[in-house]
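Hi, here's the filled form for the chain we discussed.

Project: internal
Contact: R.S.
Residues: 293
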Amino acid sequence: MLYDLSLHMGYSYDAMAHGGRHVIRVLPLSIPGRQRLVAGSITISPTPDERTVFEDFFRQPATSVHVRAPHEKLDIRMQARVMVESPAMTADLSPQLSRLPHELANVWSVDFQSPHHFIGTSPRIGVDAAITAYAKELVKPGMTIREIAFAMCKRIHKDFTYDGEATTVDTTPSEAFKLKRGVCQDFSHIMILALRSLGIPAGYVSGFLRTIPPPGKERLEGADAMHAWVRIWCGDATGYIELDPTNDIVAGSDHIVVGYGRDYSDVAPVIGVLKGYGNQQAKQAVDVIPVQN
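And the returned structure, exactly as it came back:
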């Protein structure tokens, strides 16, 4: 699938802000065999006094900006054209859970693709006894890693309710688990914590999801969204797969990858600091438009 993407993220402040430093990660990646960024650009208003592009540890481009002058608003706009392919699902060659530690021990690399970065804790993924028990209840003798991942994806989709008002960007997996409500970030964090508690490497994927309006309804401009799902290492023979617990599906040609990380903190679309006081208001609009080719 070929898509044209547009994103607008707008921030308005109660009082003049200045000295803003921000890191922006919103451009889709080019991933061999998965997707290709044909063209893309990011524009920022007011124009930053400093702007640099760098690669993070996971070899993903990020844009760093510094806005010194006082400003009431900050607007970030991204436009891109990207080609996306559906990952092929092959036969299940993943090991049973008892064999996974042996396969992990044979992975000596600690480069950006290493599964060792996606086990244990990370800035937003800790340890939770209730989520660990929830994960262990799911595992049956003889299940492979891929079977466990699919079962976990399905169970979270079934047990949790999507509710955009129930949580915030700072809600922890433990808090969302108790609520049994939340959004894609919450469901992905819960699934990651659950899988890691079993010793299965799992990470966070940030990206875009094309949404399809209900039958008979027109597609609303700006109604698509940034999205999150989960990347799971299923052993040496299978490698990584990507599952979307919010929708209980394999991430396919409607899922456009922006970044991979241990959790949201590695791939947040915008992070930064500024000088000011009062509150801020934020808005976001996304369009994912299929291109006829």
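Let me know if anything looks off before we file it.
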